Amino acid sequence: MHKKFAVLGLSVALLQGCASVNMESDQASYKASNFSEPSPGFANLYIYRSTSVGQGLKKDVWLNNDCVGETANNVFFLKEVIGEGAEHKVSTESEFSPNHMLFNAESGKNYYVEQYIKMGVFVGGANLRLVDEAKAKQQIAKLKLATQGKCSKPHP
Fold it and tell me: What's the pLDDT tens digit per position in 102-139?
């Protein structure tokens, strides 16, 4: 019985604590949150996390099996991806196995993927969803740009 309470207490603490990741400069963050047009033939992909749940958790994110970085609450990444209808896979570390999301990118567009934390058995899991532009821009404007390329685990 005490073990159940200990696991529950640890889960709650991890879901409410505060995690941090390496951040880019304020200038880089400001520039990235201007939502400029991508280069010709490309699309911009914003991956962000802005939920109040799971603040004590860091979760890896991958794009097409390559590490984008580690997320914490209130951070975002900006990646330029091939457009022309190319399919892309965004993956996130979760509790037991990664979750994946596929989308087709059209050149000249911005795409917004939110990583969100959900309750898990032992620790919080993570999932991904495409978000409409108006809502995403409003959320990302309050976030900071995280440093790319450092994942805690290799892509499974």
Answer: 999 999 999 999 999 987 777 788 999 999 999 999 99
Q: What is the CATH number of the domain that holds 16?
A: 2.60.40
Going by pLDDT thresholds of 50, 70 and 90, the confidence category of residue 19 is: low
Residue 153 lies in a domain: no
Quick count: other Cβ atoms within 10 Å of Cβ 123? 19
Task: Tell me, yes or no, whether 57 lies in a domain.
Answer: yes
Whether residue 155 is contained in a domain is answered as: no
The overall average pLDDT reported for the chain is 86
Closest CA to 93 of 130, 144, 54: 54
**Residue 107 in domain:** yes
Domain count, the chain: 1
**89 lies in which domain range?**
2-145
| pTM across the whole model | 0.84
